[in-house]
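Troubleshooting: if your tokenizer reports a length mismatch, compare your output against this known-good record of 416 residues.
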Amino acid sequence: MNRDQRQAENIEAWKKAGCEGTIEACTGYGKTRTAIKALKRMKDAGYDVSALVVVPTNYLESQWKERIKKFGLKRVDVKTVQSIIRDYSGGSPIGKWNVLIPDEIHKYVAEEFGKLYNAVEYDAVLGLTATVPDDERADIIEKYAPVVDRVTVTEAKENDWVSDFVIYQYGVQLNHQEQDQYDALTDKFYKNFSWFSHDWPKVTKCLNDDKFCARWAAKQGIHGQTGRLKGHASRVMSTVQDRKSLLYQSETKLDVAEKILQRFPDKLTIAFSERTSFADALADRFPDRAFAYHSNIEGQEVDGEYYGVERMKERGIDLFSDPSSEVNILSTARALDMGVDIENMDLGIITSASSKSLQAIQRIGRVIRHQENKTAIIVDIFAEDTQDEFWLQGRYKDFPDSLIKRISTINEIDHL
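Known-good structure output:
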């Protein structure tokens, strides 16, 4: 089965569900194209279709508008969810469309953005997502647009709908200073966590519920000392954040990422992190080859002309996409986790990430978009024997072992 046939099946599944549902498909498979095909099929059948595409970012808005123009579709509007919520007063809907297309539908489940479904009148809804979160957000999606078809990354790879790829999990040891800091923070964490019987909900409840905190203090033999117990709870929270920051900004990981980039200087590479400061630090090591793209990017003068923030972001993508440009590294935090389609990327480096499989699927999807005779490489750098390794296991729990290789040296990366 080719991809067009599979996308036709996606559309049929949506139609059988009464045109009310979500297509869950891995990044790189072609969810946008599937939605456009659904609209074209309705128009070809004689329906006078109007549609509203809802996106979470301005960049995605621009990409959707380009695709719609390319396919010659009319009466298809594209708006960011922020603009819709801003225009919606809580009274009358901002307008009516036949089809509502919430792209990245998992983003519209929080209380504020959840207003989307009241802010717009629609007859049918076609949600798009790389994966439905395995938490309470799934209930909201189930309410408004339940999943009607799924395309996993394994299915896409086996059928050549995305490029062949290999995920290298590169385990490193923290340097002595980082390890000492990590160990000290871990000791501090467990000393304070023990006050709550190593039960995380008790920590958060103690901070937010004074009556519970008073009862638990009495049970711990410090009756009337709720302030002391809250202090322990606060230190649990702060040490978690401090330890996370240490792992996210590890100098060891920065050095390893630099060595990988030095080894593969000609590869079009995107490097993901969890801190904008790390993204900047990595880009600074390759001043001629790298562009730091993230939420804290600042406007600046370029060739005598001032570029604002959005224009600077566009410039970074343009330089990276231009084969004649020296820039072949995009160093980013979370800003490019979703909504950026760049062809011909060879290498993805993940220096830090959460435990969520959604983030892993989206980041990997940036690199594995289909290209003939390409084997994309993803290198996920993690600190061994730390919380980092636990997060790694979480984000790859839905990936088959056949796609993953554990390595301990750069020389073991053998597909580029």
